Amino acid sequence: MTGSIRHLYVHLPFCAHRCGYCDFVTLVGRGGEHGAYVDALLAELRLEGGVLAPRLETIFLGGGTPTFTEAGALERLLAALPDADEVTVEANPETVTPELARLLSRNRVDRVSLGAQSFNTSLLAVLERRCEPEDVRRAVHDLRDAGLDNISLDLLYGIPGQSAADLETDIGQALALAPEHISYYELEAKPGTRFTHAHGEELDRQAEAMEGYFERVVEALVGAGYRWYETANFCLPGREARHNLGYWLGRDYLGLGIGAVSTLGLERRRNAPKLAGYVAALARGEEPPREVEALDEETKLRERLMLGLRLDRPLPLAGLEPAFEPAALARVERLGLAERRDDGLVLTERGRFLGGAVTAELMA
Ligand SMILES: C[S@@+](CC[C@H](N)C(=O)[O-])C[C@H]1O[C@@H](n2cnc3c(N)ncnc32)[C@H](O)[C@@H]1O
Ligand code: SF4
C-alpha cells in the first residue's frame, strides 16, 4: 500500500546532557538503549509507512541530539530509511568528528542543521552547552570535508548576559562560516523552569531588548545576501529548509519516535514521550501509546493562516475565508502591515516584525 505523504520526521531523543533552557523530548545518556530504540523506530515505520508516497520529498532526523545516538544504531537507521530529495540531520557541534561526518554523507544525508547557539564562551556556559566556539568551526569544516554542502546553523538571541555587541560578534562569526542556511531564534524561557528561576531578572532585561535584536539579525543577514524567507529562517538562494517549508505550507507529515507528532488529514497524532512504553508496544507489533486529536476544517484553516503568514511568499486566500475577519484584513492592509500580491496575502516588513500579533488580529 502506498499513500501520498511526502515528509517524514524521525525523533532521536538522546542527549549527553540536558541544557537548562531545553523543553524538547530528550533523554540523557541511555547508551545501552539506543539500538532497541532504533529497532522500535523501524517497527513503527513498517507499521505506519503505508501512508508514505513512493518517493519522499524530505526526511528530518531531529532531537534530542541525533548525532549522539550510538554510531552503529544511527547508521542502521539511516540505511533503512526510504529515499528522499532532502535528508536533514540535527547535530550538536561537539559530536561532529570526521568519522561521523563521513557516516552521514555515505548514508545519503545531504543537509546538517548544527546547533551552534552562540560563539561566545560565557554565553554557551549560561546555556549549559557542552561545546566551545571552536567546536562549531571545526564541525563545519569536518562536514564540508565529507562533502556536505548544505549546512544550517541554529543561533539564539536574548541569552541572559548577552549584549548588543555580543550579538554583533555572533552574527559576524556565523557569517564567516558561510552556512547555506541560518535559523535565528529568540530564546524562549518557560516559566517555572530551573533556567527561568536562575536568570529571572536578566531574562526580563533581555525581553526588553528582543525587538531590537530581531531587527538587527534581519538587517545583518539580509545585508549579507540571505533571504529572510520565514520569520526566524534565512537562506542563500534555493537553500530553504524544504522539510520545514512543507510544515509551514500546511502539508501532512508522518512523525516517528517518542513525542513525535504526525498530521494526517483531519487527524493529529502525538506519540507519548516515555521510552519504555514506546519500545515495548512496538516489540509486540502494536501501535505506540499516543493521543489522537481530531482536527476540524476550521482549525486546519487557522493553522494554515498562522503558519503561511510566517513566509515571505504570498499565502493564497482562496478557501481561507472562514479563518479571517474581512474587516481585520482591511485594517491590517490600511496600517501597512500586510498587502495583497498574486491573489494572496503577505505581511509587509513591518508586519513581519510584529509577526504573530498581526495574524492574531486577522483571525476570525
Ligand atoms: C531541539 S534542538 C535540537 C538540536 C540540538 N540538540 C541542539 O541543541 O543544538 C533544535 C533547536 O531548537 C532551538 N531551541 C531549543 N530550545 C529553545 C528555546 N528554549 N528557545 C528557543 N529556541 C530553542 C535551538 O536553537 C536548537 O538548536
Ligand atoms: S542538546 Fe539540544 S535537545 Fe539536547 S538538551 Fe540540549 S538543547 Fe535540548
In words, what does this structure look like?
Helices cover 40% and strands 22% of the residues. α6 packs across α7 (194-223). It has a 9-stranded mixed β-sheet, with helices on both faces. The protein is globular, with a radius of gyration of 21 Å. It has 364 residues and is of the alpha/beta class. Bound molecules: S-adenosylmethionine and iron/sulfur cluster (SF4).
- The average pLDDT score comes to 96
Euclidean distance between termini CA atoms:
40 Å
Largest sheet: 9 strands, mixed
Structural shape: globular
**Helix tally?**
13
Hetero groups: S-adenosylmethionine, iron/sulfur cluster
How do the strands of the widest beta sheet line up side by side?
Answer: 9-10-8-7-6-5-4-1-11
Number of strands: 17
- Structural class of the helices, strands and pairings? alpha/beta
Helix content: 40-55%
Strand content range: 15-25%
Radius of gyration: 21 Å
Low-confidence stretches: none
Secondary-structure element pattern, one letter each? EEEHEHEHEHHEHEHEEHEEEHEHEHEEHH
